[in-house]
Amino acid sequence: MLERDGYLPGVPCWVDTTQPDPEAAVAFYSGLFGWDFQELMPGSASRYFIARLRGGDVAAVGSQPEGAPPAATWNTYVWVESADEAAANALSAGGRVLAEPFDVGGAGRMAVLADPEGGAFCVWQAKAHRGAQIVNEPGSLNFNGLNTRDPEGAKVFYGSVFGWQAFGLGGGAEMWRLPGYGSFLEQSDPGLRERVAASGGPAGFEDVVATLNPIPQDEADTPAHWSVTFAVDDADATAARAAELGGTVLVEPHDAPWVRTTVITDPQGATFIASRFVPENKDLELEAGSTLSAS
Q1: CATH code for the structural domain at 1-295
Q2: Phi then psi for 98, rounded to 5 degrees?
Q3: Please, which residues have CB within 8 angstroms of residue 140's CB and are 6 or more apart in sequence?
């Protein structure tokens, strides 16, 4: 897998998890995915550990912000040219600014935003830190997904803020595409479109940047949220290993369109998806009440 060095504006580029006990989370994820960690702020009250595979940044574990509820979560970051402009655009489109744009040392500038339904996400204006360097291989970020009760409203909001368009994948699944993303990827990965077509992917799939997942009606207590999916080489083994390390398997490994997938909660309560790409599953129908992401 080619290493990334920057992203097109409007593409999810980074994930981190905020945890009540960051050191315990480091132990869990290193045991689960084989991540190596480097602490960026030793001696500080706020902890931030960068996770790496083969020396490339893949994710991070950090302390919870002061005053935040004591609940662990995974956070999605979207690459933007200007965090300030993105925050202003989100407000104009009916969203909220949960944390005003601020500098993160020399790494970049960010803001925490929410869509009109309350789904929170971050925007990242890169300086030294240029997002995940390794993606789409076992133990690294594979997808980010919006879980929403108002897909049509989400299409208006995210289309306005990032230029995203809804993309029907078949089998009841929908995704977000950013026109031109495939061309951006082709610059460093020639032949991408041909490989996508050879695997059975529909035209335009190379532009996909995230999933769009309606929250089932029977999940009345589930708020709108962004979810994180990590690629694995064996979803069943990953679920078993997570349980051994103190995590909880919320959704047992199962086949879904294009993947075999499982939903896991870490010992402190942050939920994520582990998914193995299975091209043979491309024509499966999405079962009623199920999604391609954590809900």
Answers
A1: 3.10.180.10
A2: -85, -30
A3: 53, 58, 59, 132, 134, 230, 231
pLDDT tens-digit series, residues 142-186: 999 999 999 999 999 999 999 999 998 765 678 999 999 988 888
* CA 282 vs CA 122, 140, 173, 293: distances in Å: 31, 22, 11, 16
Q: What are the structural domain ranges in the chain?
A: 1-295
CA distance to 142, 204, 244, 265, per residue, from 248 (Å): 21, 36, 9, 5
Residue 259: exposure state from Cβ atoms within 10 A (0-12, 13-18, ≥19): buried
Residue-wise pLDDT for 71-130, tens only, equals 899 999 999 999 999 999 999 999 999 999 999 999 999 999 999 999 999 999 999 999
The H or E element that residue 98 is part of is strand 96-104
- Is the CB of residue 63 less than 8 Å from the CB of residue 21? no
**Residue 196's pLDDT is what?**
74
Q: Decide: residue 39, CB within 10 A, 0-12 exposed, 13-18 middle, 19+ buried.
A: middle
